[in-house]
Amino acid sequence: MASSDRSSAPRPVPGSYGLPVIGAVRDRLDFYYFQGQDKYFDSRVERYGSTVVRINVPPGPFMARDPRVVALLDAKSFPVLFDVTKVKQLLFSLLQSRKDAVVPTFRSNFSALFSTVESQLAAKEGGNKVEFNKLNDATSFDFIGEAYFGVRPSTTDLGSDGPSKAAKWLLWQLHPLVTLGLPMIIEEPLLHTFHLPSFLVSGDYKALYSYFSTAASQSRVLDTAQSLGLSREEACHNLLFATTFNSYGGLKVLFPGLLAGVANAGQKLHSRLANEIRAAVAEAGGKVTLAAVEKMELVKSVVWESLRLDPPVKFQYGHAKTDMQIESHDGVLFQVNKGEMLFGYQPCATKDARVFGPTAREFVGDRFLGEKGKKLLKYVYWSNGRETENPSVDNKQCPGKNFVVLVGRLFLVELFLRYDTFTAEVGTELLGAKVVFTGVTKATSGPGTA
Ligand code: HEM
């Protein structure tokens, strides 16, 4: 965006999507039959007096994803399509600027979670069982809001409804991929054939948007976005997506998966973790510092092992950019043509026994320790890239990669500063593991007892 344009305040993109379904079907008929392609776009540019307009693009219902787009119909705006880096730059700058807030906000939010676990375990009516996932949803949502913007969503107008609104919106994004356990005859038409109507979730989206708009303004993130050439409105939608879908959606699955793996690994691993964590924290003067966390090699290995065995995002898609050959692990070459859609199911790739040996399907906490262990890291793919590589504005690797491995480690630190060991029942739910605490043994040594 040229600096001369910035002097005028950004305005909303004009246009209309019409009524759900009916609007898109009408537009499709215009596009294919009544107007033809060129006229379809030209007439809308004329109608709204703007070359950047909100319109539906065919095919729309019921075949394609959401038909609603912001269409860029002039030579100046169009090149934005070539450049996804502004949004990424914004996320890198956000994570970098909030680096120092992560440890204290993590600790305050998650120590409150564990206090709740303890009091609920002590209360007889709970039957000595405490569901971790529900507590994690509420805590992770608040933690992310506070870590990124300094404002806990539960203290705003959203109140305690943030996680449920976010989960509903997530379901609207992910329903083609999930099953709710209902009979197939109901689920197929409901979840897998059509997109759920967006007006049913628009109230939830608006409430979330309002939180992001206020919190990101207060924390000046939207000022940064503007200085990168993004409009405040566009930046806010992107922050909502990165925070709710990528970050909250990620932590909703990451922590139960990690806890499940560690619970099943048993007491021996628990005491090794507790010893390592407490020694490093004691050495740092009783404080959980980033430097202390860096020294915890076993902790890091356990987080990687969990991400290897149970990657939170299991499917990957990509178009072949050129005609290419793909080699399988059996040494077979396959021809793939430009434009073909490639699809990967990650759990298969990261449990390959030819890389991870006979224990490939097992949780081995210390797998990545030492020189030999480090050599395996390049086969850990959870971030849409190798664990030995780093995300940048030029690649499609998860920009939250380092943040995720850090919070995974902080989770174990909090757990084993507090407890010598714990027991839990492990099952599965919609998107990953379900964990129910059945008992915790308070720490008998180290800084956690202070
Ligand atoms: C456990 C947590 C997380 C997991 C498992 C995860 C995983 C992934 C994966 C697999 C992708 C690639 C998707 C694809 O193109 O196929 C991705 C992309 C992305 N992630 Fe994460 N992520 C997590 C947390 C985060 C966090 C905390 C952020 C916050 C900044 C984030 C931001 C993004 C963004 C913006 C992309 C799109 C990158 C691009 O297409 O260029 N993620 N993530």
From TrEMBL:
GO molecular function, one term: oxidoreductase activity, acting on paired donors, with incorporation or reduction of molecular oxygen
Highest taxon of the lineage: Eukaryota
CDD domains named in the record: CYP74 (cd11071)
The UniProt record lists the keyword S-adenosyl-L-methionine: no
Key words, A-Z: Fatty acid biosynthesis, Fatty acid metabolism, Heme, Iron, Lipid biosynthesis, Lipid metabolism, Lyase, Metal-binding, Oxylipin biosynthesis
Family of this protein: Belongs to the cytochrome P450 family.
PANTHER family per UniProt: ALLENE OXIDE SYNTHASE 2, CYTOCHROME P450 26
Protein name, as recorded: hydroperoxide dehydratase
Organism of this sequence: Eleusine coracana subsp. coracana
